Amino acid sequence: KHWPPYNFSAGPAMLPKQVMEQAQSEFTDWRGKGLSVLDFSHRGTDFTEIAEKAEADLRQLLNIPKNYRVLFAAGGASFQFAMVPMNCLRNRAVYVDTGIWGSKAIKEAKQFGQVDVVNALSERDGLQAILPESEWGIEQGFDYLHFTPNETIGGVEFSDAPVVGRGQLIADMSSNILSRKINVEDYAVIYAGAQKNIGPAGLTILIVRDDIIQQPAAQSAPSLMRYSTLAESGSMYNTPPTYSWYLAGLVFDWLIKQGGVDVMEQRANERSQKLYQFIDKRSFYANPIHPSARSRMNIPFTLADESLNARFLEQAEMAGLHYLKGHRSVGGMRASLYNAMPVAGVDALIEFMVEFERTHG
Ligand code: PMP
């Protein structure tokens, strides 16, 4: 059996079909201007209109208060691993480590000051879980607490922001932003690489509280790596990734028309529950994460017989189910189910998995 191609990659992820079609229809001639968005000057009125609408729509989607600035930066989320400590680490920061992305952020932060690391992955009932906050042993008086709400590689997700450090939280929301309701006021900084739930790779969205922007960055921080530079220039200190910004705007518009973050949250729950329930019923497939910490976005799974991995991936590709290979550090499979993934994509994957088990189990 063959399905319309579905992209299960952890990123770059699929964009909504309607967004692709709109971008296609406007590609050579944006709204009768005779020019493509690719041609637009980032300082011209047309691009300004695009940029402002994208920001306004994101503000509406996440209910971003007035005392937070939205910044559109380049460099990917990894760039923020350095920008965060450059701008916010004065004396001591706490980093909660629940996987590979958190560890990478820690590695960068350590170059800028004292970093207290909380190893928050623990075992519960033979599965991986997030250690309860009461056992983190955090010493108060830190500049900020950094965590990764959704660890894309391990498939570990927080169901809510930590209580400790609310108001001083810095979150790498790359792989679950806009997929569940959040209270922006819990955070000092939110950042997210765009290539999963927002748009094309290369763009990073930041939501930064005013007082964080006003505090001085590390003296050695390059201009472009200071939040204040981006904020004062309206994210146009240099040429921003204009086309990615435009596409992100189309995605935000699509999200609003779909019913916003509430609807995305319901769909994420539906998609992920379907797949977890299926995996849990079979001994042929397994997921290593405790139900309390399971990601709704990235679902790693293994086959009981690992020697079948290559065949599984090959046949999935042939059936139109792409990029199911797990991260190289983990192995096995991983199905990433971001906002643009229809429930039909999960149904197709489950049908494929049933058939694969029937013929190889
Ligand atoms: N943080 C998380 C949670 C991620 O999933 C990723 C990318 N998969 C990154 C950071 C790195 O993003 P980028 O490649 O945009 O630097």
Automatic annotation (TrEMBL):
Pfam families reported for this sequence: Aminotran_5
Residue positions, PTM N6-(pyridoxal phosphate)lysine: K196
EC number: 2.6.1.52
Gene from which the chain derives: serC
Gene3D superfamilies registered for this protein in UniProt: Aspartate Aminotransferase, domain 1 (3.90.1150.10), Type I PLP-dependent aspartate aminotransferase-like (Major domain) (3.40.640.10)
Entry-linked NCBIfam families: PRK05355.1, serC_1
Organism: Pleionea mediterranea
Keywords assigned by UniProt, alphabetized: Amino-acid biosynthesis, Aminotransferase, Cytoplasm, Pyridoxal phosphate, Pyridoxine biosynthesis, Serine biosynthesis, Transferase
GO BP field: L-serine biosynthetic process; pyridoxine biosynthetic process
Domain of life assignment: Bacteria
Complexes and interactors: Homodimer.
Every Aminotransferase class V domain range: 6-349
Location, primary (coarse class): cytoplasm
Family: Belongs to the class-V pyridoxal-phosphate-dependent aminotransferase family. SerC subfamily.
Record function comment: Catalyzes the reversible conversion of 3-phosphohydroxypyruvate to phosphoserine and of 3-hydroxy-2-oxo-4-phosphonooxybutanoate to phosphohydroxythreonine.
Keyword RNA-binding part of the UniProt annotation: no
SUPFAM superfamilies (alphabetical): PLP-dependent transferases
Molecular function via GO: O-phospho-L-serine:2-oxoglutarate aminotransferase activity; pyridoxal phosphate binding
Pathway the protein takes part in: Amino-acid biosynthesis; L-serine biosynthesis; L-serine from 3-phospho-D-glycerate: step 2/3; Cofactor biosynthesis; pyridoxine 5'-phosphate biosynthesis; pyridoxine 5'-phosphate from D-erythrose 4-phosphate: step 3/5
CC annotations in GO: cytoplasm
UniProt: pyridoxal 5'-phosphate binding residues: A77, S78, W101, T152, D172, Q195, N238, T239
Cofactor: pyridoxal 5'-phosphate
Protein name: Phosphoserine aminotransferase
Cofactor note: Binds 1 pyridoxal phosphate per subunit.
Reactions listed under catalytic activity: 4-(phosphooxy)-L-threonine + 2-oxoglutarate = (R)-3-hydroxy-2-oxo-4-phosphooxybutanoate + L-glutamate; O-phospho-L-serine + 2-oxoglutarate = 3-phosphooxypyruvate + L-glutamate
